[in-house]
């Protein structure tokens, strides 16, 4: 087992060191919260929610700390279920931070997950490219393998036409 040298750093550590101050200034959150959100939110809300920002309360009395309000983006009707479970979610968030960081959750309905791009099937090859692909597949006897090679060949040979 080898140990990293003291001068070496992981890219994630460097990236977090650059991103955390920006996130803290703009949104009041850090990359650790974003990275662990699936575990904090649980299986019910991990796929439909995303933390956006924590609004920390300003205190006039010297040094007194007040918990903040966490804004969570949630998709559609799942926001109603999140409203009912917000007490448990606040406890999970505070246990993640190790202190009472959040006392209230504000839910904003908006799309959270990126729409999955549908894979397009490439148009069938014509002319010389189709003949070339058929010549390449000449010795393949297995039907499933032949279909897979044809799909691959169509995608590869068809790219040059774009």
Largest sheet: 3 strands, mixed
Can you tell me the CATH class of the largest domain?
Answer: Alpha Beta
Order of strands side by side in the largest beta sheet?
Answer: 1-2-3
SSE topology string = HHHEEHHEHH
Pfam families: DciA
InterPro entries: DciA-like, DUF1159
Describe the overall structure:
- The protein is of the alpha+beta class and 162 residues long.
- The chain folds into two domains: 20-58 and 65-109, GMP Synthetase, Chain A, domain 3, CATH 3.30.300; 128-158, no CATH class.
- It has seven helices and three strands.
- The protein has helices spanning 11-26, 31-35, 37-45, 78-84, 86-97, 128-136, 143-159, and strands spanning 49-55, 68-74, 102-109.
- The protein has a three-stranded mixed β-sheet with strand order 1-2-3.
- The radius of gyration is 26 Å and the shape is elongated.
Main attributes?
DciA-like; single chain; three-stranded mixed sheet; 7 helices; 162 residues; DUF1159; alpha+beta
Concise account of the structure shown:
The chain has 162 residues and is of the alpha+beta class. The chain has helices spanning 11-26, 31-35, 37-45, 78-84, 86-97, 128-136, 143-159, and strands spanning 49-55, 68-74, 102-109.
Fold blueprint:
Blueprint: H1 11-26, H2 31-35, H3 37-45, E1 49-55, E2 68-74, H4 78-84, H5 86-97, E3 102-109, H6 128-136, H7 143-159
Parallel strand pairs: 2-3
Antiparallel strand pairs: 1-2
Helix pairs in contact: 6-7
């Amino acid at each position: 087992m080898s140990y990293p040298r003291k001068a070496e750093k992981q890219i994630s550590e460097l990236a977090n060191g650059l991103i955390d101050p920006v996130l803290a200034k703009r949104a009041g959150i850090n990359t650790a919260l974003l990275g662990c959100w699936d575990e904090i939110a649980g299986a019910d809300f991990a796929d439909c929610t995303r933390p956006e920002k924590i609004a920390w309360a300003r205190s006039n009395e010297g040094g007194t700390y007040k918990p903040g309000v966490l804004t969570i983006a949630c998709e559609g009707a799942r926001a109603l279920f999140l409203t009912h479970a917000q007490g448990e979610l606040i406890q999970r968030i505070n246990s993640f931070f190790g202190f009472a960081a959040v006392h209230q959750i504000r839910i904003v309905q908006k799309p959270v997950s990126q729409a999955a791009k549908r894979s397009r099937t490439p148009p069938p090859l014509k002319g010389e490219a189709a003949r070339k692909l058929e010549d390449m597949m000449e010795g393949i006897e297995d039907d499933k393998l032949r279909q897979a090679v044809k799909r691959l060949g169509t995608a590869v040979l068809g790219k040059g036409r774009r």
